[in-house]
Structure formats: structure tokens, C-alpha cells
Amino acid sequence: MSTPQVTHGAVLQCSFGAAPCPLVVLPENRVTAGMLPAANIMDNKPLVNVASFGLCSSPTNPEVVALTAAALGVFTPAPCIPVLALPWEPGVPSVAVGGLPALDTNCKLMCEWAGVIAVESPAQMTVTVP
After folding, report:
1. pLDDT band at residue 127, thresholds of 50, 70 and 90?
2. Which fold has domain 2-121?
3. How many H helices and E strands in the chain?
4. How do strand 36-37 and strand 32-33 relate by DSSP bridges?
5. What pLDDT does 1 receive?
């Protein structure tokens, strides 16, 4: 099986975000792919692993609701601060990074404000998994 391994520097996009952001993978697991730290399903920490996507346009985000109300009903996006309580899904159980399933480009991360975060670019080459 061949799959693009997600590493530090991968480009992420949220379905409600205005701009992409890079994935930050700290080298704590000491596993690399293409000389970059490899990601696992727990690389989901807001503002550590996943930065801001610029502005958030989710109608379930309380900041968007408040700004829209303050603008007398004119929809107003708010600064994005991801709220990420769950790990990436589904992960690659046949490949362990730091004892946890690795990330590939099929993985998604859910934001509490209904956004779906996807990997646009894995930041490294294809890895062949036996």
C-alpha cells in the first residue's frame, strides 16, 4: 500500500476557515518521514499543532454569533481559534508514530464549531507501507 505520510509543514484547510495553515509536528516522537517529523492522530492541539485559519465563518461559533448580532444581523466572521477535542480520524493503524496511528491525507479533524479540517498537502513524498 502506498500512502502520503503527513508530516510537519503539511498544509491544512478548515471548511469554515478563510485561509490554510501549516501543521506543526513537534519532534517528540523521534519518527521522521522525508527528514520531517511524522504526525500521528494526537497532533491535534489547538495553536500548538493546528494554528488559526484566519477568519471563521461557522454559524455555530459563539464569536461569529456575537459579532453578527453586534452588526445588527449582518453576517460577520470572527478570528479563528480552533477548538479540537477529538483526535484525527481515522488514522493509519498499520503505521505507528510514537505508538499511535499515523496520519495520511485521508484523515480529518473535527472542530467543535462544525468545521472539518483536511490535509491539502502532506509536506513530503509517498511512503510505501508493507
Report:
1. low
2. Tumour Suppressor Smad4 (2.60.200)
3. 1, 12
4. antiparallel
5. 43
